[in-house]
Amino acid sequence: MQHIEITHNPFTVNTAILVNGKQPAEGSPLTAYREQRLQRWVEGLFGDLDAVFNGATEFKLTFKGVESDWLDINEAAEKAEAEGMKITLEHAPFAKDGEKRLQELVKLKEKAKAENFLDFNDGDFLHNFQKALDRDFDVFVVATMSSGKSTLINSILGQDLLPAANEATTATIAEIYDNDGMPDGMFNATCYAQPGYVSEIECKEQKLDEAKSVKKELLTEWNNNPEVFKIKLEGNIQGIEERQHVRLVLTDTPGPNNSQNSEHSRTTQKCIQDESKQPLIIYVLNGTQLGTDDDKHLLGLVSKYMNKGGKQGKDRFLFVANKMDNFDPEKENVPDVLGRVHDYLESNGISHPLVYPVTARLAYLLRKEKAALERGDADRLTRAEQGDLNKLKFSFDVDEQETRDMDMEQYMPLSGRAKEKLDKRKLPPLLRRSGIPALESIIDEYIDKYCFPYRVKHAYDALLEAIRKAVNKNELELQLDQDAKALEQIKAAVAELNARKDKSFDLEVYKERIEREGKALPEPVEKTLFAIQQERMPVLADLDKRLHGEVSPLEASRLLGGANKELLFLHNKMVNAYEEEFKKAQDAIRADLKAEYQAYVQSLFPESNELKLPLLDSIKRSLGDMSLDLGVRNEDVQKKDKYEWQERAWYNPFRWFGDSHTQEYAGTREVVDLGDRWAKAKTEIETALRGLVENAQVHIQFGHEQLIEDYMAFMTQQFDKHFSQLMAELDAKLSDQQQREDAIAQAKAQLDRINSFEAKLKATLEV
User: Which residues form a coiled coil (predicted)?
Assistant: First the structure.
């Protein structure tokens, strides 16, 4: 039996593996695991072990790490055992979870503030730490029409809030913010108009109306109001675990081809394409009606991003087969229905999808009934709802042997930990059979597995960088501990440094050099822009083949309407991809400007042997540590609410075809020349799509130029001020012996405190 020992730290993303007590040989596939998240390699672990040991089938695996990663090891082992391996698993005591570590980091930050050894005016530090603590965790509910999406969300809320009678009329984005401090069953709401741009980089929402303890009737009214772009609700989402540092934001997205507002359509696609935040996506399917064109386009996009993201890419897409109560269990069974759903998803490029069968209607009615009883029958079930509930209770009766197959939970790929949490909630068995509580537990598990490690590491990095700056500052003070001869030499060095600075930075000359050399788009961005532009070619070629000949107006309307949907999807997909490249280009220019800054600082320092003093290295590090503060505004960092920069819309809205294709006449028969209609539209469409990439390049280039302007402002304002202040303080300490001695004593004491703090900080990441 081969013994494999795995220690995985999800916070540092580091894996240590021992094979029979030794490091795996270089070139072994196991060495590739060292700096990858466990979810990237765990599915291939036992296949790699099989290859390393030439078909050996018996393994003992010992694991050290966090419980959520251990569950993934377990799952991979079960699959390997099903294929003939014999695996013995054991684990060390589980390491602290991410939420506890985040709480420790917040306490350490407050300790650093109390002891006054971190610079809390540092914009980068405040921004990065606050970003790590951003409580909002996004879960997007996505679906095409007739899937029961709104009913599913209402079942999670336990309230009849979102309009569900006709999902085609879902015209707004509804964001539901979890607030465990609010009374059960009460939701406050605010509606907003489409955001208005107040400057090139700032976008503000305009509030239209608000209501306390809102009812469905008002939300329906808002939803039907064309001025309303977004609705925000706040209340206690009872099925999601309360956490200090995570606030669930459940978003009901309009359909991907929503015709009332193209921005809504883009939002739905954007949540799928978001590779940075990787929000959880609940994709709702009608278990009894599969195969819409809208699904085909959206699932193609999902497939692309699932395949790019390893196990996390798979975990973040939950395919919910809803309306499982809408078929006759005496004629077909749940496994058969789920088999069709799996086949349908596989046919759309989704390999090994995680499918969760639910009957949202049952959970919604049970929770509404319970809430009505608790609130004194204030929102009791209607007669029709009571009739539906009675029928569902009969179909899902937990006491009847014949209905045991209708327990949705038994078909869900739940971990042992998720099942244990469900048991602790002590829910009514009938509610559990609906599958909705199990879905809620899976959302909780995703937060534990992916959200917390990401936030812990970013908070840790922000504090560690701040500590490094504090150490440099205090080491600079210690360099003042010199004899009289050395002090005179240091004074001369500081005087020369001042002189160099005064004559070394000519802003106009620097600007001319930047303009002359240029800050072209990074080559990878250029290549990606070209690849995005080419995505239109196969779509247009396919439409060329399909749109030709004379057809009836009704058929023309159907075919051109379908083409319009495809082009809308393509347009939104391209816009989202361009905006992602905009962010990458911004990161690239920031890195470039940081390198420029470091080179400038380096150029300030004399290179002659007599001036190579330790003090100069400390000054150089102190200047190099200064935050460039490009695009980070301190006043925004301090806001409690979620805040994001948004750019002025650089793209034109989708406005092709319109209603002009409904009918044309030829002789006495009403027909449409489809080829002619498409040829006319295609010219406009190709022009618009070519213009899209040109506008994107202008948009990205503008972002480059804006950051360069910010950098120039920094160099002439913040850097000058900081440099002058540092030199003045040094000069005073060099001239005044008592002041110098006090500074040295304070620095020694402060460094002791910093070293103790750093040891506690590093302990927060240990497993």
Answer: 473-500
| Strand 280-286 relative to strand 187-197, pairing | unpaired
Over residues 478-510, the pLDDT tens digits come to 888 877 777 887 888 888 788 877 766 666 776
In this structure, are 424 and 566 located in the same domain? no
Residues 143 and 69 in one domain: no
pLDDT of 611 reads 47
Containing structural domain, residue 43: 2-91
What does the alpha-carbon distance between residue 461 and residue 455 come to, in Å, rounded to a whole number? 10
Q: What is the pLDDT of residues 199-229, one digit of tens each?
A: 444 456 788 999 999 988 899 899 888 888 8
Q: Where are the beta strands (DSSP E) in 236-279?
A: 247-252
Do residues 85 and 188 both lie within one domain?
no
Residue 22 per-residue DSSP state: B
Please check whether residues 558 and 413 belong to one and the same domain.
no
Distance CA 167, CA 286 (A): 13
Residue 114 domain flag: no
Out of 396, 416, 434, pick the residue that ends a domain. 434
Alpha-carbon Rg for the chain in angstroms? 31
| Residue-wise pLDDT tens digits, 331-360 | 778 888 899 999 999 998 888 888 999 999
Q: Per residue in 704-729, pLDDT tens?
A: 788 888 888 888 778 888 888 888 88
Instruction: List Cβ<8 Å contacts ≥24 apart for 428-433.
Output: 428/366, 429/398, 430/362, 430/366, 430/393, 430/396, 430/397, 430/398, 431/362, 431/363, 431/366, 431/367, 432/407, 433/362, 433/396, 433/398, 433/406, 433/407, 433/408, 433/409
**Domain co-membership, 143 together with 75:** no
